[in-house]
Amino acid sequence: MRLRTPTLVATGMVAAIGLAACGGGSDGGSGSAADSSKCTNKIVNADAKKVTVWGWYPNMAKVVDNFNNDHTDVQVCWTNAGQGQTEYDKFQTSITAKKGAPDVIMLEAEQLVGFEIQDALVDLAPLGANDVKSNFSEGAWSDVSQGDAVYAIPVDGGPMGMIYRKDILEKYDIDVPKTWAEYAEAAQKLKDAGGPAFGDIGSNIPAAVTALMIQKGAVPFQYDLSDKLNISIKLDDQATKDVLNYWGDLVKKGLIGKEDQFTTDYISGVVGGKYATYVSAAWAPGYLSGQGVGEGDDAGQFAAAELPQWDESNPVSVNWGGSTFAVTTQTSDKQAAATVAMGLYADEASLTDGWKTQTIFPLNQTVLKSDEFVNAKIDFFDGQTANKDIYVPAENAYAGATYSPFTVYYYAQLQAQLVKLFAGQTTGDQAATDLQATMVEYAKSQGFNVR
To answer: Can you give the pLDDT at residue 364?
Structure first.
Protein backbone atom coordinates (compact mmCIF):
# COMPACT_ATOMS: atom_id res chain seq x y z
CA MET A 1 0.00 0.00 0.00
CA ARG A 2 1.55 3.26 -1.07
CA LEU A 3 0.92 5.08 2.23
CA ARG A 4 2.27 2.27 4.30
CA THR A 5 5.86 2.39 3.24
CA PRO A 6 7.28 5.47 4.99
CA THR A 7 6.05 4.20 8.36
CA LEU A 8 8.31 1.19 8.08
CA VAL A 9 11.33 3.36 8.59
CA ALA A 10 10.13 5.39 11.54
CA THR A 11 12.92 5.93 14.03
CA GLY A 12 10.76 6.80 17.02
CA MET A 13 10.46 3.91 19.45
CA VAL A 14 7.19 2.54 20.76
CA ALA A 15 7.33 2.69 24.58
CA ALA A 16 9.82 0.16 25.98
CA ILE A 17 8.55 -3.31 25.23
CA GLY A 18 10.15 -5.20 28.05
CA LEU A 19 8.76 -7.84 30.31
CA ALA A 20 7.80 -5.21 32.84
CA ALA A 21 5.23 -3.99 30.34
CA CYS A 22 3.78 -7.40 29.64
CA GLY A 23 0.45 -8.72 30.83
CA GLY A 24 -1.44 -5.47 30.30
CA GLY A 25 -4.87 -7.06 30.54
CA SER A 26 -8.15 -5.32 29.91
CA ASP A 27 -10.71 -3.34 31.81
CA GLY A 28 -13.40 -3.84 29.21
CA GLY A 29 -13.51 -2.65 25.65
CA SER A 30 -15.09 0.14 23.74
CA GLY A 31 -17.14 -1.84 21.26
CA SER A 32 -20.44 -2.16 23.06
CA ALA A 33 -20.42 1.50 24.04
CA ALA A 34 -19.36 2.92 20.67
CA ASP A 35 -20.92 6.33 20.12
CA SER A 36 -22.23 6.57 16.54
CA SER A 37 -21.68 10.33 16.58
CA LYS A 38 -17.95 9.69 16.90
CA CYS A 39 -17.76 7.43 13.86
CA THR A 40 -16.21 8.82 10.69
CA ASN A 41 -18.60 6.67 8.70
CA LYS A 42 -22.36 6.17 8.60
CA ILE A 43 -23.89 3.38 10.69
CA VAL A 44 -26.38 1.57 8.46
CA ASN A 45 -28.02 -0.73 11.01
CA ALA A 46 -28.36 1.25 14.23
CA ASP A 47 -29.51 -1.71 16.34
CA ALA A 48 -26.51 -3.89 15.48
CA LYS A 49 -23.42 -4.41 17.65
CA LYS A 50 -20.92 -1.65 16.94
CA VAL A 51 -17.21 -2.42 16.66
CA THR A 52 -14.66 0.40 16.77
CA VAL A 53 -11.86 0.27 14.23
CA TRP A 54 -8.64 2.22 13.71
CA GLY A 55 -7.26 2.06 10.18
CA TRP A 56 -5.53 4.23 7.61
CA TYR A 57 -6.02 2.63 4.19
CA PRO A 58 -6.74 5.45 1.70
CA ASN A 59 -10.00 3.78 0.61
CA MET A 60 -11.04 2.89 4.16
CA ALA A 61 -14.31 4.86 3.96
CA LYS A 62 -15.44 2.80 0.99
CA VAL A 63 -14.31 -0.45 2.63
CA VAL A 64 -16.22 0.33 5.83
CA ASP A 65 -19.36 1.23 3.92
CA ASN A 66 -19.13 -2.04 2.00
CA PHE A 67 -18.91 -3.99 5.26
CA ASN A 68 -21.74 -2.14 6.98
CA ASN A 69 -24.06 -2.48 3.98
CA ASP A 70 -23.39 -6.23 3.93
CA HIS A 71 -23.96 -6.88 7.67
CA THR A 72 -27.05 -6.60 9.85
CA ASP A 73 -25.53 -8.16 12.99
CA VAL A 74 -22.46 -5.95 13.40
CA GLN A 75 -21.42 -2.48 12.27
CA VAL A 76 -18.03 -0.81 11.99
CA CYS A 77 -17.45 2.53 13.70
CA TRP A 78 -14.28 3.74 12.02
CA THR A 79 -11.71 6.35 13.03
CA ASN A 80 -8.44 7.23 11.34
CA ALA A 81 -6.19 7.49 14.40
CA GLY A 82 -3.16 8.29 12.29
CA GLN A 83 -0.90 6.38 9.96
CA GLY A 84 1.64 3.83 11.13
CA GLN A 85 3.77 5.10 13.98
CA THR A 86 1.27 7.79 14.97
CA GLU A 87 -1.38 5.13 15.45
CA TYR A 88 1.04 2.80 17.23
CA ASP A 89 1.95 5.48 19.75
CA LYS A 90 -1.73 6.03 20.53
CA PHE A 91 -2.27 2.29 20.86
CA GLN A 92 0.71 1.98 23.20
CA THR A 93 -0.69 4.78 25.35
CA SER A 94 -4.02 2.96 25.58
CA ILE A 95 -2.27 -0.28 26.52
CA THR A 96 -0.43 1.44 29.35
CA ALA A 97 -3.63 3.13 30.54
CA LYS A 98 -5.64 -0.09 30.04
CA LYS A 99 -8.33 1.88 28.25
CA GLY A 100 -8.93 3.80 25.06
CA ALA A 101 -8.01 1.16 22.49
CA PRO A 102 -10.33 0.30 19.61
CA ASP A 103 -11.84 -3.14 19.21
CA VAL A 104 -10.01 -3.73 15.93
CA ILE A 105 -6.77 -2.09 14.83
CA MET A 106 -4.79 -2.01 11.60
CA LEU A 107 -1.18 -3.09 12.24
CA GLU A 108 1.76 -3.88 10.03
CA ALA A 109 2.72 -7.54 10.28
CA GLU A 110 6.18 -6.77 11.61
CA GLN A 111 4.70 -4.81 14.53
CA LEU A 112 2.44 -7.60 15.80
CA VAL A 113 4.89 -9.33 18.14
CA GLY A 114 5.65 -6.11 20.00
CA PHE A 115 1.99 -5.85 20.95
CA GLU A 116 1.41 -9.58 21.35
CA ILE A 117 4.05 -9.73 24.08
CA GLN A 118 2.07 -7.15 26.05
CA ASP A 119 -1.08 -9.31 25.86
CA ALA A 120 -2.67 -6.49 23.88
CA LEU A 121 -4.00 -8.66 21.03
CA VAL A 122 -6.59 -11.45 21.02
CA ASP A 123 -5.86 -14.93 19.70
CA LEU A 124 -8.34 -15.26 16.85
CA ALA A 125 -7.95 -19.01 16.37
CA PRO A 126 -10.78 -19.91 18.81
CA LEU A 127 -12.94 -17.26 17.16
CA GLY A 128 -12.91 -18.74 13.67
CA ALA A 129 -9.70 -17.41 12.15
CA ASN A 130 -8.74 -20.81 10.75
CA ASP A 131 -11.95 -20.76 8.73
CA VAL A 132 -10.30 -18.14 6.48
CA LYS A 133 -6.77 -19.56 6.62
CA SER A 134 -7.14 -21.12 3.17
CA ASN A 135 -7.64 -17.63 1.72
CA PHE A 136 -3.96 -16.85 2.27
CA SER A 137 -0.54 -18.18 1.33
CA GLU A 138 1.54 -20.06 3.87
CA GLY A 139 3.91 -17.14 4.26
CA ALA A 140 1.16 -14.55 4.78
CA TRP A 141 -0.47 -16.72 7.45
CA SER A 142 2.85 -17.41 9.13
CA ASP A 143 3.44 -13.68 9.56
CA VAL A 144 0.30 -13.31 11.71
CA SER A 145 0.66 -16.54 13.71
CA GLN A 146 2.50 -17.79 16.77
CA GLY A 147 2.27 -21.57 16.91
CA ASP A 148 -1.44 -22.41 16.78
CA ALA A 149 -2.40 -18.87 17.79
CA VAL A 150 -3.48 -16.32 15.17
CA TYR A 151 -3.18 -12.67 16.13
CA ALA A 152 -4.33 -10.86 12.99
CA ILE A 153 -5.87 -11.32 9.56
CA PRO A 154 -3.64 -10.42 6.58
CA VAL A 155 -4.85 -7.84 4.10
CA ASP A 156 -2.01 -6.62 1.90
CA GLY A 157 1.66 -7.40 1.41
CA GLY A 158 4.86 -6.47 -0.35
CA PRO A 159 6.43 -9.34 -2.31
CA MET A 160 9.65 -7.87 -3.66
CA GLY A 161 10.75 -7.42 -7.24
CA MET A 162 12.72 -4.90 -9.26
CA ILE A 163 11.41 -2.05 -11.38
CA TYR A 164 13.65 -0.87 -14.20
CA ARG A 165 13.66 1.75 -16.92
CA LYS A 166 13.50 0.13 -20.33
CA ASP A 167 14.85 3.21 -22.09
CA ILE A 168 18.03 3.33 -20.01
CA LEU A 169 18.83 -0.37 -20.25
CA GLU A 170 18.15 -0.36 -23.99
CA LYS A 171 20.27 2.74 -24.58
CA TYR A 172 23.29 1.22 -22.86
CA ASP A 173 22.68 -2.37 -24.06
CA ILE A 174 22.31 -3.78 -20.55
CA ASP A 175 20.41 -6.98 -19.82
CA VAL A 176 18.03 -7.14 -16.88
CA PRO A 177 20.10 -8.69 -14.06
CA LYS A 178 18.88 -12.00 -12.67
CA THR A 179 21.46 -12.23 -9.89
CA TRP A 180 23.08 -9.74 -7.55
CA ALA A 181 26.42 -10.46 -9.22
CA GLU A 182 24.88 -9.47 -12.55
CA TYR A 183 23.36 -6.40 -10.88
CA ALA A 184 26.81 -5.23 -9.80
CA GLU A 185 28.27 -5.95 -13.24
CA ALA A 186 25.48 -4.02 -14.94
CA ALA A 187 25.97 -1.11 -12.55
CA GLN A 188 29.67 -0.96 -13.43
CA LYS A 189 28.93 -1.16 -17.15
CA LEU A 190 26.43 1.68 -16.89
CA LYS A 191 28.87 3.88 -15.01
CA ASP A 192 31.70 3.14 -17.44
CA ALA A 193 29.42 4.18 -20.30
CA GLY A 194 28.63 7.49 -18.59
CA GLY A 195 25.09 6.53 -17.66
CA PRO A 196 23.08 7.32 -14.51
CA ALA A 197 23.23 5.43 -11.24
CA PHE A 198 22.01 1.86 -11.57
CA GLY A 199 19.85 2.13 -8.44
CA ASP A 200 19.59 3.61 -4.95
CA ILE A 201 19.93 2.21 -1.42
CA GLY A 202 18.82 4.93 0.97
CA SER A 203 19.59 4.43 4.63
CA ASN A 204 15.93 5.05 5.49
CA ILE A 205 14.74 1.67 4.17
CA PRO A 206 15.93 -0.72 6.92
CA ALA A 207 12.89 -2.94 6.34
CA ALA A 208 13.96 -3.54 2.76
CA VAL A 209 17.58 -4.13 3.76
CA THR A 210 16.43 -6.64 6.36
CA ALA A 211 14.42 -8.46 3.69
CA LEU A 212 17.52 -8.62 1.50
CA MET A 213 19.51 -9.99 4.43
CA ILE A 214 16.89 -12.72 4.88
CA GLN A 215 17.06 -13.45 1.15
CA LYS A 216 20.79 -14.16 1.57
CA GLY A 217 20.04 -16.62 4.37
CA ALA A 218 20.20 -14.45 7.50
CA VAL A 219 17.83 -15.14 10.40
CA PRO A 220 18.08 -11.89 12.38
CA PHE A 221 15.65 -12.96 15.10
CA GLN A 222 14.12 -16.15 16.40
CA TYR A 223 11.35 -15.62 18.90
CA ASP A 224 8.43 -17.69 20.15
CA LEU A 225 5.69 -16.01 22.15
CA SER A 226 5.26 -19.20 24.19
CA ASP A 227 8.78 -18.62 25.53
CA LYS A 228 8.62 -14.90 26.31
CA LEU A 229 11.89 -14.68 28.19
CA ASN A 230 14.18 -15.96 25.44
CA ILE A 231 15.18 -14.57 22.06
CA SER A 232 17.85 -15.39 19.50
CA ILE A 233 19.62 -12.46 17.83
CA LYS A 234 21.98 -13.17 14.93
CA LEU A 235 22.94 -9.95 13.19
CA ASP A 236 26.69 -10.53 12.92
CA ASP A 237 26.40 -13.64 10.76
CA GLN A 238 28.11 -13.98 7.38
CA ALA A 239 24.93 -13.50 5.37
CA THR A 240 24.22 -10.14 7.00
CA LYS A 241 27.84 -9.06 6.56
CA ASP A 242 27.77 -10.10 2.91
CA VAL A 243 24.65 -8.02 2.19
CA LEU A 244 25.92 -4.93 3.99
CA ASN A 245 29.32 -5.21 2.31
CA TYR A 246 27.65 -5.66 -1.09
CA TRP A 247 25.59 -2.48 -0.90
CA GLY A 248 28.33 -0.55 0.85
CA ASP A 249 30.73 -1.47 -1.95
CA LEU A 250 28.30 -0.36 -4.67
CA VAL A 251 27.87 2.99 -2.92
CA LYS A 252 31.63 3.38 -2.41
CA LYS A 253 32.25 2.80 -6.12
CA GLY A 254 29.57 5.32 -7.04
CA LEU A 255 27.54 2.71 -8.91
CA ILE A 256 24.30 3.43 -7.05
CA GLY A 257 22.88 6.37 -5.13
CA LYS A 258 22.50 6.64 -1.37
CA GLU A 259 19.66 9.14 -1.27
CA ASP A 260 16.88 8.61 1.26
CA GLN A 261 13.84 7.19 -0.47
CA PHE A 262 10.26 8.51 -0.23
CA THR A 263 11.53 12.09 -0.42
CA THR A 264 10.79 14.81 -2.96
CA ASP A 265 14.38 14.76 -4.20
CA TYR A 266 14.34 11.01 -4.63
CA ILE A 267 11.09 11.05 -6.60
CA SER A 268 12.47 13.86 -8.77
CA GLY A 269 15.43 11.61 -9.49
CA VAL A 270 13.18 8.72 -10.46
CA VAL A 271 11.17 10.97 -12.77
CA GLY A 272 14.33 12.45 -14.25
CA GLY A 273 15.96 9.12 -15.06
CA LYS A 274 18.58 9.41 -12.31
CA TYR A 275 18.22 5.70 -11.50
CA ALA A 276 17.99 2.76 -13.88
CA THR A 277 16.37 0.41 -11.35
CA TYR A 278 14.30 0.47 -8.19
CA VAL A 279 14.47 -2.58 -5.90
CA SER A 280 11.01 -2.50 -4.42
CA ALA A 281 7.79 -4.33 -3.57
CA ALA A 282 4.44 -4.95 -5.22
CA TRP A 283 2.97 -1.75 -3.78
CA ALA A 284 5.63 0.38 -5.52
CA PRO A 285 3.75 0.97 -8.80
CA GLY A 286 0.86 2.50 -6.86
CA TYR A 287 3.19 4.59 -4.73
CA LEU A 288 5.22 5.86 -7.68
CA SER A 289 2.24 6.62 -9.91
CA GLY A 290 0.69 8.47 -6.98
CA GLN A 291 3.77 10.70 -6.96
CA GLY A 292 3.49 11.46 -10.67
CA VAL A 293 6.09 8.95 -11.85
CA GLY A 294 5.28 7.34 -15.20
CA GLU A 295 3.62 10.40 -16.71
CA GLY A 296 4.74 12.66 -19.53
CA ASP A 297 8.12 11.66 -20.95
CA ASP A 298 8.29 8.81 -18.41
CA ALA A 299 5.12 7.14 -19.69
CA GLY A 300 5.70 3.59 -20.85
CA GLN A 301 9.33 3.52 -19.75
CA PHE A 302 9.00 1.30 -16.68
CA ALA A 303 8.90 -2.50 -16.46
CA ALA A 304 8.95 -5.07 -13.66
CA ALA A 305 11.38 -7.93 -13.18
CA GLU A 306 11.97 -10.61 -10.59
CA LEU A 307 14.12 -9.69 -7.61
CA PRO A 308 17.75 -10.57 -8.38
CA GLN A 309 18.93 -13.68 -6.54
CA TRP A 310 22.12 -14.64 -4.76
CA ASP A 311 21.81 -18.16 -6.14
CA GLU A 312 19.68 -18.36 -9.28
CA SER A 313 19.27 -22.13 -8.83
CA ASN A 314 17.85 -21.61 -5.33
CA PRO A 315 15.57 -18.56 -5.52
CA VAL A 316 14.27 -16.97 -2.32
CA SER A 317 11.21 -14.72 -2.20
CA VAL A 318 11.09 -11.98 0.46
CA ASN A 319 8.56 -9.39 1.56
CA TRP A 320 8.72 -5.66 2.30
CA GLY A 321 5.67 -4.40 4.14
CA GLY A 322 2.22 -5.76 4.83
CA SER A 323 -0.81 -4.74 6.86
CA THR A 324 -3.34 -6.68 8.94
CA PHE A 325 -6.40 -6.29 11.13
CA ALA A 326 -6.04 -7.42 14.76
CA VAL A 327 -8.48 -7.53 17.69
CA THR A 328 -7.38 -5.80 20.89
CA THR A 329 -7.85 -7.30 24.33
CA GLN A 330 -9.78 -4.19 25.39
CA THR A 331 -12.77 -5.20 23.27
CA SER A 332 -15.94 -6.07 25.13
CA ASP A 333 -17.11 -8.51 22.44
CA LYS A 334 -14.31 -10.64 20.99
CA GLN A 335 -16.55 -12.51 18.59
CA ALA A 336 -18.06 -9.39 17.06
CA ALA A 337 -14.61 -7.84 16.75
CA ALA A 338 -13.25 -11.02 15.16
CA THR A 339 -16.09 -10.93 12.64
CA VAL A 340 -14.96 -7.47 11.64
CA ALA A 341 -11.25 -8.36 11.52
CA MET A 342 -11.97 -11.35 9.29
CA GLY A 343 -14.55 -9.62 7.11
CA LEU A 344 -13.24 -6.08 6.71
CA TYR A 345 -11.45 -5.63 3.38
CA ALA A 346 -12.32 -9.24 2.54
CA ASP A 347 -15.36 -8.73 0.32
CA GLU A 348 -15.04 -8.74 -3.45
CA ALA A 349 -15.99 -5.08 -3.91
CA SER A 350 -13.38 -3.81 -1.44
CA LEU A 351 -10.61 -6.09 -2.70
CA THR A 352 -11.31 -5.15 -6.30
CA ASP A 353 -11.28 -1.46 -5.48
CA GLY A 354 -8.05 -1.96 -3.50
CA TRP A 355 -6.06 -3.57 -6.28
CA LYS A 356 -7.51 -1.60 -9.16
CA THR A 357 -6.68 1.70 -7.47
CA GLN A 358 -3.30 0.23 -6.42
CA THR A 359 -4.12 1.00 -2.80
CA ILE A 360 -3.05 -2.50 -1.75
CA PHE A 361 -1.41 -5.61 -3.09
CA PRO A 362 -4.06 -8.08 -1.85
CA LEU A 363 -3.05 -11.26 -0.06
CA ASN A 364 -6.44 -12.90 -0.39
CA GLN A 365 -6.12 -15.89 -2.70
CA THR A 366 -9.56 -15.30 -4.19
CA VAL A 367 -7.97 -12.27 -5.83
CA LEU A 368 -4.51 -13.71 -6.44
CA LYS A 369 -6.06 -16.60 -8.37
CA SER A 370 -8.62 -14.56 -10.31
CA ASP A 371 -8.07 -14.14 -14.04
CA GLU A 372 -8.86 -10.44 -13.85
CA PHE A 373 -6.09 -9.77 -11.33
CA VAL A 374 -3.52 -12.24 -12.61
CA ASN A 375 -3.81 -11.16 -16.23
CA ALA A 376 -4.30 -7.44 -15.58
CA LYS A 377 -2.25 -5.26 -17.90
CA ILE A 378 -0.66 -2.67 -15.63
CA ASP A 379 -0.69 0.83 -17.11
CA PHE A 380 2.38 1.90 -15.13
CA PHE A 381 4.30 -0.95 -16.75
CA ASP A 382 3.07 -0.12 -20.26
CA GLY A 383 0.63 -3.02 -20.27
CA GLN A 384 2.96 -5.64 -18.79
CA THR A 385 1.17 -8.42 -16.87
CA ALA A 386 3.37 -7.81 -13.83
CA ASN A 387 1.03 -9.58 -11.40
CA LYS A 388 1.26 -12.83 -13.34
CA ASP A 389 4.93 -12.45 -14.27
CA ILE A 390 6.39 -11.14 -11.03
CA TYR A 391 4.30 -10.40 -7.98
CA VAL A 392 1.86 -13.32 -7.64
CA PRO A 393 4.63 -15.96 -7.95
CA ALA A 394 6.74 -13.98 -5.48
CA GLU A 395 3.90 -13.82 -2.95
CA ASN A 396 3.07 -17.51 -3.25
CA ALA A 397 6.75 -18.42 -2.81
CA TYR A 398 7.19 -16.24 0.28
CA ALA A 399 7.71 -18.45 3.34
CA GLY A 400 7.20 -15.84 6.06
CA ALA A 401 9.62 -14.21 8.50
CA THR A 402 10.17 -14.06 12.25
CA TYR A 403 10.00 -10.58 13.75
CA SER A 404 11.32 -9.36 17.07
CA PRO A 405 9.31 -7.72 19.88
CA PHE A 406 11.19 -4.48 19.21
CA THR A 407 11.02 -3.93 15.46
CA VAL A 408 10.97 -0.13 15.57
CA TYR A 409 14.07 0.07 17.79
CA TYR A 410 15.87 -2.45 15.60
CA TYR A 411 15.08 -0.47 12.45
CA ALA A 412 16.38 2.70 14.08
CA GLN A 413 19.68 1.02 14.96
CA LEU A 414 20.06 -0.58 11.52
CA GLN A 415 19.33 2.77 9.91
CA ALA A 416 22.07 4.38 12.01
CA GLN A 417 24.54 1.75 10.83
CA LEU A 418 23.50 2.21 7.21
CA VAL A 419 24.12 5.96 7.47
CA LYS A 420 27.68 5.26 8.64
CA LEU A 421 28.20 2.53 6.06
CA PHE A 422 27.11 4.65 3.11
CA ALA A 423 29.19 7.57 4.38
CA GLY A 424 32.29 5.34 4.34
CA GLN A 425 32.65 5.53 8.12
CA THR A 426 32.36 1.78 8.71
CA THR A 427 32.46 -1.53 6.88
CA GLY A 428 29.68 -4.03 6.42
CA ASP A 429 31.43 -6.42 8.79
CA GLN A 430 31.81 -3.79 11.49
CA ALA A 431 28.27 -2.52 11.02
CA ALA A 432 26.92 -6.04 11.57
CA THR A 433 29.10 -6.54 14.64
CA ASP A 434 28.07 -3.21 16.16
CA LEU A 435 24.41 -3.83 15.37
CA GLN A 436 24.58 -7.21 17.07
CA ALA A 437 26.14 -5.71 20.19
CA THR A 438 23.57 -2.90 20.34
CA MET A 439 20.58 -5.19 19.95
CA VAL A 440 21.83 -7.76 22.45
CA GLU A 441 22.43 -5.03 25.02
CA TYR A 442 18.98 -3.59 24.38
CA ALA A 443 17.23 -6.96 24.59
CA LYS A 444 18.92 -7.71 27.90
CA SER A 445 17.96 -4.30 29.25
CA GLN A 446 14.34 -5.17 28.47
CA GLY A 447 14.54 -8.41 30.47
CA PHE A 448 15.19 -10.93 27.70
CA ASN A 449 17.67 -13.77 27.79
CA VAL A 450 19.62 -13.69 24.52
CA ARG A 451 20.64 -16.97 22.98
So the answer is: 96
